[in-house]
Specification:
The complex is a heterodimer of chains A (525) and B (320). Helices cover 33% and strands 20% of the residues of chain A. Chain A is built from 17 helices and 20 strands. In chain A, the strands form four sheets. In chain A, strands 1, 8, 9, 10, 11, 12, 13, 14, 15, 16, 17 and 18 form a twelve-stranded mixed beta sheet that branches. Chain A has a four-stranded antiparallel beta sheet with strand order 4-5-7-6, covered by helices on one side. Chain B is 80% helix and 0% strand. The chains are: A alpha+beta (525), B mainly alpha (320). Chains A and B meet through α1, α7, α8 and α14 of A and α2, α3, α5, α6 and α7 of B.
Chain lengths: 525, 320
Amino acid sequence: MLKKIVAIMLVLAMVFSLAACGKTGETQPQSGGAENNAGGEEQKEEVPLTPAGKTDLKFALDQEPASLDPYMHTKQQGFTVGTLIFETLIKKDENGKFIPWLATEWELVDDTTIVFKLRDDVTFHDGSKMTAEDVVYSLALGATSSFSKTVFSSIDPENTKALDEYTVELKLLNPYAPLFEALASFRGAILCKAARESMGETEYGRAPVGTGPMKFVQWVSGDRIDLEAYDGYWGEKLPFETATARIIVESSSRSIELETGGVDIAMELAFSDWDRIDSNPDTVLISGESQSSTFILLNNSMKPFDDIRVRQALAYAIDMQSLVDIAFQGNAVVADSYYIPSILGHKSVGPMEYNPEKAKSLLAEAGYGDGVEIDFYTYEHPIHSVVGEVLQSMWGAVGVKVNILVVDLATQTELNNTGKVSTAHMSPTVAIADPDAALMIWPTWRTISIRHNDQHVQDLLDAGRSTYDDEERAKIYGELQDYLFSKTYSIPVAFPKAAFGTRNYIEGLEFSPSLVPDMTTIRFK
Amino acid sequence: MLNYIFKRILVAIPVLLGVTLLVFTMLYFTEGDPARLILGDTATEEEVEALRDELGLNDSFIKQYVNYLGGIAKGDFGTDYITGRPVRDEIMERLGTTLKLAVASIIFSIVVAIPAGIISAIRQYSVIDIVTMVIVLLGNSMPNFWLALMLILFFSVFLGVLPASGLYGIEYYIMPVIGISAGAIATITRMTRSSMLEVIRQDYIRTARAKGQSEFIIILKHALKNALIPVITVIGIQFTVAVGGAVVNEQVFAIPGLGKFLVDAIKSRNYQVVQGGVLVIAIICSIVNLAIDLLYAFIDPRIKNQYQRSKKIKMAKEVR
């Protein structure tokens, strides 16, 4: 017995010491050392092959979706799974052109009327046919649900109707240029009216019925969502029979699962894992610019930010390049405007030059020559907290004392929406790649603490929203960006990058600025 | 004995009521609005207000609490604000996983820690004792998070023998069990050692040796049995820690357990999930404590006598 115990002790001691060594060896990934597949992979020099007989796809999400019903949440994780289950009327091809999908053709009858012709061979996973009624139902839902209103509120739910079984007349309350972008996004999915009405919205969100290539099987709370191929799918079949979305919140665990082949795709990799995934021959890093940009919120209805000289002084006092390099570890570019360059109408207006002397004189002019104290709000977020610390030193250098207040996200959200946040670094999610959505913080009805109350901003937003001509629209948004910059209501900070990783046999999966990649484009090499 | 169990269960009711009141009050006064969190920053004030009404968050403190207690009495733990599902279902789905892991971890801890503690005690100041104590110190001081990641790096990345995360088969349990047990093993080993050291110096051990009893029997029957009471107390505490406090291990190993569920619920102000989860953990704690107290009686005849004596005195009083 004694011997046994000694043996156990020794094993334990070995485990601990070896585990400690493992840390130093971590920088050199062991290729092949972690092969789980009996089929095995080819040597790294040769063309990588999909493990023999692979018919499943496993991907790791960074958060559990709240619901899979696209009109009942706003989280990218739910939409990502949704790309396999649901489909949209139209899609966008790689050149940014809208192409037919569930709709075969469409016609803009006038500024507020669009007629869609639908495919007649599409069935839902419960076997029922998709008809114009389902489309009308989904569009009306988009217009009324508090989750999707931001992109679909212009749809007139009363007068949008089915002209016949496969023709839909979409009516708008007012001209709405972002409509096609919204319909082509994962947010404009077509739901099964009969199933959703009989199941109820909560249950439908837990066990959705769509028209996509994969159908829902089960959702194990906190663990995974299982899907399987839908035999009655009208389009091209996917190369996998089953798909599993695993929920792995811890970012290092997510990347390790990818490295060891436990999953084929890992979403939302942390900056610290990028190099390792990139240099590992078994895995591929797919990165790109996210469509959500970050900014420093200034509460324009609060002292001292109600004085434009103070706002400009704060902007002049920031060495933006250093701030971005430090906070984003080199994985972002300095924001030169209020949304990213790939969205229509982007105009390079900034950043404000780094000029602490000018900042000091502006502050003195505004009556704060002896210094001023402001609060910066943050929560347990790796980037926002670093931004706060850097600002504390940069603003401190021009006589602005920054108190960093660390709260939790829930508290900050409440303070922000009741106008109590004085300043903070924020990265709101941009729902669709359209300037109207990208400028979502600016409407005057918004409850967040920016509180600029400037009607001119609202007028320009309204004008841009209702102008269909791209050139004219771009001009309006150009003017708006110039205007926002001249007023310095906020300070744009960065256009961050994001990345996900795949095993080397996955191809066809494109980076998506919305961080919701279309999973139906996945092929195995 | 049955009488005693019944009394203990009765005592648990006010304790659990106190727990619900405490949690409810704390959440009520915590900043952060669940309705705003669900709808996000882009919702208007009216939409948020409407959802608050729907969730019953605009009711008075008393009304909300009474409604909540009324629900509990009927076995309804309320609704998860985020998923819209019954909290009871959500908790039950996770409770099984958590209990399986907790039981496996505590068994593993006992199997490792008690022999280790005994050997350390009977070979006090020997090499084995020193090595054990160093490992125990390490086990106690290693951050959970770090240990869990090191285990994954070693077994999954370096050796490639164990799956890195999830809980889909027996081999998936190995690393989480080691991760959760590390602290428990350390504590139980130390408690066993010190308790044994005390006992083996007692006169009756010397008597047993004097009558020529084999050392093995002396240690197991005479010493260990007497040394077990404090050890069992510690095991009980460690079990409740494994049920509610395995948050870090659940996060790193991507295990859908109760602890992480609760922490997420606190972050998203998912009030009813927090209340339900804490209540369930409190119930488990009560049950474990009761079981431990009963186990005392089972192991130690003196304690058993006490239970019976109080019964006898009572009976005597009634007769009088």
